[in-house]
Amino acid sequence: MHTNSANRSEIDEQPAAHLAPLSPEATLALSRVSTATITTQLMSRGLRNTYLEGLEFSNPARQRLLGEAFTMRCIPAREDIDVPSIFQDYDHPQRIGVESVEPGQVLVIDARGKKRAASIGHILATRLKMRGASGIVSDGSFRDMVGFEELDLPTFSAGASPTTNLAQHHVVDFQIPIACAEVAVYPGDIMVGDRDGVVCIPRHLAESVARDALEQEELEEFILSKVEEGSPLRGTYPPNEELLKTYSELLPN
Ligand SMILES: O=C([O-])CC(=O)C(=O)O
Ligand SMILES: [Mg+2]
C-alpha cells in the first residue's frame, strides 16, 4: 500500500491531538465512575477493545487512576546499541520522555507485553510523581516493586522483574499512537484505572462517556438498593417503565 508522508502524519495525529482539556464536570465524573461502567458506555458506542488486559495496580492504596495518555514506545533491545553506558546520556529517549510528561498525564508504555526486563524503575517513577504525573501504565513489568508498592501514585503493570530495561527494551519514541496490552492508545486519550483494571477512552468520546457513565451509575445505585431490598431481577434489572418512573420522580429537577 502506498503511504506518502502527508497522509502518514494525518494518521499519526488523529484522533486525539489538539483537543480541548477535559471539562471539570467530565473530570469529576471520571474520577468517580468505575471502569466497568466505562466499558459498558464504550461498548454502546461500538468499542469493545478498550480494556488493557492483564495489568495490576502496584499500590493497593492508589488503585484509582485518571489522566490523559502520554505514550512511550519500546522496540526490542539490540546488544550493540543497548549497552549500560547509554544511560550516561541524559538525552537518552527514556530520560527525555520522563522529563516531558506534563502534570495530569499518565505515562503509558508500550513494552510489547514483554516482562523479562522491567520497562521502568522506581527512581524514574518517583521523578514522574514529582513532575505531577497522574500515573504510569505499562504492559511490561516494573523493577524495584517494593518502591512502587509504597509510591503515592497510581501505577499499573503486568508484573515485576529485577532486570533493567536495556536488557530487553529500547525506548524509541513518545507521543505517538501505541499498542498497550493489545489496546490502541493515542496521545491524549483518557486512561482510567480502578480495582478491575485499566481502560482507555478515546479522547473525543471522553465528555459524553463521562456524562452518561455518571447517569448509568446513579440509576444502578437505585437498582442495587431495590435488589438489596429483595426485588427480583424481572422488572428491576433492567428496570421496567414503572420503576424508571419511580426513579425519575426521585431525581432533582
Ligand atoms: O533501569 C531502570 O529501569 C531505572 C531504574 O531502575 C529506576 O528508575 O529506579
Ligand atoms: Mg531502580
From TrEMBL:
Alphabetical UniProt keywords: Magnesium, Metal-binding
UniProt key word Hydrolase: no
Enzyme class: lyase
Catalysed reactions listed for this entry: 4-hydroxy-4-methyl-2-oxoglutarate = 2 pyruvate; oxaloacetate + H(+) = pyruvate + CO2
Cofactor: a divalent metal cation; Mg(2+)
E.C. number(s) listed in UniProt: 4.1.1.112, 4.1.3.17
Region annotation Disordered: where it falls in the sequence: 1-20
GO MF terms held by the record: 4-hydroxy-4-methyl-2-oxoglutarate aldolase activity; metal ion binding; oxaloacetate decarboxylase activity
Gene3D superfamilies linked: Ribonuclease E inhibitor RraA/RraA-like (3.50.30.40)
Transmembrane regions listed in the UniProt entry: none
Domain of life where this protein originates: Bacteria
Matching InterPro entries: RraA/RraA-like, RraA/RraA-like_sf
Binding site for substrate: G121, H122, I123, L124, R143
Binding site for Mg(2+): D144
Family under the similarity heading: Belongs to the class II aldolase/RraA-like family.
Known partners and oligomeric status: Homotrimer.
Biological function: Catalyzes the aldol cleavage of 4-hydroxy-4-methyl-2-oxoglutarate (HMG) into 2 molecules of pyruvate. Also contains a secondary oxaloacetate (OAA) decarboxylase activity due to the common pyruvate enolate transition state formed following C-C bond cleavage in the retro-aldol and decarboxylation reactions.
Protein name: Putative 4-hydroxy-4-methyl-2-oxoglutarate aldolase
Source species: Salinibacterium amurskyense
Organism placement in taxonomy: Bacteria, Bacillati, Actinomycetota, Actinomycetes, Micrococcales
